[in-house]
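Sequence in, structure out.
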Amino acid sequence: MVWLIPLIALIAGGWLLVKDIRNRGPVVTLLMDSAEGIEVNNTVIKVLNVDVGRVTRIKLRDDQKGVEVTAQLS
């Protein structure tokens, strides 16, 4: 009987983890000349004034001719 509460907590945690993974959208990479005004976890991606994602990473491109902006869509 003592193990019933941890077992229920484990099942609920697993269900929440699976639900979170299934609700995530695709990750997109945008190649841009400059990242001026873009902030990680602060800049929102919008389409027709609807928030569809957030910037998760900004990286200098390998050819040094711009930046690679990664965004997680919802």
